[in-house]
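Lecture notes, unit on binding sites. The following record was shown on slide 14. It pairs a sequence with magnesium ion.
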Amino acid sequence: MFTILEPTIENIHICAKEILKSNLVVMPTETVYGLAGSALDLKAIEKIYKLKNRPLFNPLIAHFYNISHIKEYCHLESLALDLANIFMPGALSIILPKKANSKIHPICSGNTSKQAVRIPNNHNALQLIQYSNVPLVAPSANVSNKLSPICAKNVIQSFAEIKFGDNINILDGGDCDFAMESTVVEVIDDKVKILRYGSLSIEDIKQAGFDVILLENAPHNNVLSNINSPGLLKKHYSPNAKLRLNACDINPNEALLAFGEINFAIKKDTIVLNLSPRGDITEASKNLFPMLWELDLKKVSNIAVMPIPNFGLGLAINDRLSRASYEG
Ligand code: TXA
Ligand code: MG
């Protein structure tokens, strides 16, 4: 199953060899842990979809070690290149036109000509990509629609009930810096269209001088019908527990996921985790997945979540929460 490895140079070389033998490696990134395989290798890609139980229509982000590496496979020009120069390496994934001769397997882009690319800001991940010398597709290392993993232990927890024959090495890079996935964007008509809210805030993109088109579907309305980025699936990022959002009180069977000051009465034995007691949205974004993991581990069945302001990384938090709580 899984073997946890220290991210030494020697171990990263071992993992790179595994990649070139069509095997998978779990790699740390600054956002979440990724289940990585060669983007050029159908056998590896099939293993990723099978292990995650991921629908085949949901395309994958290819991870590169620098901008020239991206340019070998995709067209990276004008505004997209400006974005890349400013935010890569970092928590930004850009959808780019694939080069006609690109060897990235068509499945990775959902059989379209548009490939999502990212340069992770994590030394171990960059070394793994460089030593493998191929782009690595790496979805979050969790079973599809479940919580994203932000440490090696979460990866093992996520796949605990899944049986598979291969050994998969996990490069243990400790806790992820952001603990929230990358922001996914596409450049359309000289504007940056947001396809998934994530660790890079809209404000940061605007401040760098770009015009931004926000996700048309407000994070709370859950009426997405036209899937142009399947991270927008209605049900996603879910803990085992049931979530009740925008809670201003607490029911007897619920744990509380708080934000800021709690100004209602709570019984003494209620489990309470606070995303940010001082009401800091960036701190809350880093705590969201770790705290949901913790509540799942405590086998909590219901979670009341206090309202989170909808600005800055609050957009990403509310997006994850609304999908996690969706019941169809
Ligand atoms: O932070 C991250 O992005 C992490 C780390 C491991 O890099 N990866 C990640 O991958 O979150 P995944 O597969 O869990 O989410 C990728 C998102 C999905 O919402 C997918 O639908 C969208 O990116 N996506 C991928 N390729 C796309 C494409 N060609 N067009 C539109 N959306 C795409
Ligand atoms: Mg994911």
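Take-home: The longest strand covers residues 92-97.
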